[in-house]
Design goal:
binds zinc ion, two-stranded antiparallel sheet, mainly alpha, about 160 residues, 7 helices, single chain
Amino acid sequence: MAKKKPFKRNPFRDWLDCLVAVVVKTRDNFTCQWRLSPDCQGTLMPGDNNIQACHIKSKGTCVLALRWDLLNIDTACGQCHAHMHANPDSFGVWFHGERPYVYEYLNEPRIAQKWNVDDYLDKEKELLLKSIELNVDCIVFPVRNDWRGRFIRRSQKLR
Ligand SMILES: [Zn+2]
C-alpha cells in the first residue's frame, strides 16, 4: 500500500493569501461589495473577522493565477459570503449583470500551470507594490514563519 504523503502547507500560498486579502479589503475600504444578504453588514472595521476577501472563482478550484488576481476577489461581509455560497447560480447571474467584463475575463479558458519560486516572488512583488500604492500597513500581517517575516521586513524598506 502506498504511503500517504503528509499534507504540507505551502508557505508561499499562505503568505500570498494573506497579502491579497489585505490588499483587496483596503481597496474596497472594508466595505461589502455585494450587499446581497438582507443581513449585510456594510462597512466594518479593519481586523473584523466578518469582513472577508471572497473569491468569485473559488480559490480551491481556480488556477493559481486567479487565486491572487485582484479581479477575482471582492470584499464581502460574512453574511453575503455565505449567501453567495448558498446561491451560486443566482450569484453568477447577478455578478454577470453587475460586472460583465470581469465576468467574461474570469471565465476565459485557462490552463493550470505549475508555479515555481520565481512565479510566487513575481506575484508577491506585484501585491506588495499594490499594497504600498494603497497605503496598506504590512506590519499587521501575522508573522508565522521566517519566510514571511523576511518579506515583511523587506516590504518596510520599500516604503
Ligand atoms: Zn454584505
